Prior knowledge:
Largest sheet: 5 strands, parallel
Number of helices: 8
Structural class: alpha/beta
Low-confidence stretches: 124-129
Helix content: 40-55%
Strand order of the largest sheet: 2-1-3-4-5
Strand content: 15-25%
Distance between the termini: 41 Å
Radius of gyration: 18 Å
Order of helices and strands: EHEHEHEHEHEEEEHHHEE
Amino acid sequence: MANILVCDDDREIVEAIEIYLSQDGYHIYKAYDGEQAIELLKKEDIHLLIMDIMMPRLDGIRATLKIREYSSIPIIMLSAKSEDTDKILGLNIGADDYITKPFNPLELVARVRSNLRRYTSLGSMDGVGKAVYQVGGLVVNDENKQVFVDDEPVKMTPIEYNILLLLMKNQGKVFSINEIYESIWNEDAIGADNTVAVHIRHIREKIEINPKEPRYLKVVWGVGYKIDKQ
């Protein structure tokens, strides 16, 4: 079963999350600020991180920026704030998902399961029906879960990889924001616009020479996104 690191300066919240996730079979590691979280990530085999934004010493935003320098594990951000700007900030700095306090324990467990499924799928070397998809210099090798641009490897988070794979598998087809969200997150696309747009921007920054004039990941204004056929 997966190892999950829970990081929040509120010890009662950490203990509560541990209870919910332990009942689902997960092994829990605990930290109470960003520095402790980074230390544990370097020592232990952690598969997913749940981290609060507002913490002493090193907050969740700065900690996530540091973690993304060397790790692509799923990160679910926690915050007492519900404004879109906070959600976008978390996604902008590399978080995969976001949940607002107070949260429904069942929703948190569901989001953990969903993010772990994507991460496990991205790391798996086994499976059926995998292939290599290519458009010009962009290659997605779904056999070993790698992305290359002009023969150079590109590191992606599980969310980014799965969005790109969806578009590469369906070259020429335009996907709306809601279709992308529902395909990748497996839930209703309520307020999905900003979430998908942030991840699309991250993908473009990684695969395009000039993200403002993309060669591969095109926007169809008022409709959605696509990757043209070769």
